[in-house]
Amino acid sequence: MMNLRLKLLALTFLSIISASAQDDFVSLFNGKNLDGWVEKKAHRDRYYHFFRVIDGTIMANSLNNPEHDYAWLYSEKEYGDFELKFKFRAFKTSTGNSGVQVRSRYDDEAYWMNGPQIDIHPPGPWRTGMIWDETKGNQRWIFPNIPKNAWVNESMQRKKLMFYYAEETNQWNVMRIRCVGTSIEAWLNGMKITNYEGAGVLNDETHRSLGVGMKGHIAFQIHEKDALILQLKEIFIKEL
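and the corresponding structure tokens:
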């Protein structure tokens, strides 16, 4: 009987710890509107809205604007060290590219969001989770770490990567991103994709001059001239 009581106490304690840890995450999306978020795009598309709240999700949709430029939806608040988790639904019929930028900042004069971006690429899901640096002056793949003007390929992908499409399953993809110091880690559906140590890159003179790499906004991107439809929900962050 005593052992049973101890086990019950231990389980209760663990459930309290688990609930407390979950409470550390704060919701960034209320499911009703885009309060706390700002939409930015290139000047020629400044009156067009690419991000809307539909059925309790953020819908990123560029299908009706084929000649569009880049667009971003970014958090009003800036973050340094944090853990971010969210769900996204991708579609096989969507040929466009997206991604989530971290520690980024929008340049109102250049109409550009500088900072590292964790890729989301429905046409080639093997790329999802890799990091492209959108920072002007760098703009290259930093994970995998390859030279400027070189491109990633399928041989660099994580084996047995899982990626769900809305047309095939009701499952949403789950992405988790952890930024601590010069380190960026990313998981897709529980599988670790990225383990990037960015010392000498994220904190170099180029990134420091633009105020990105180590602290900044979180932003969801739509790539220029891409036919993209992507849904986002359950966006939570925990500052570390």
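(Above: one complete record from the training split.) The radius of gyration is 19 Å.
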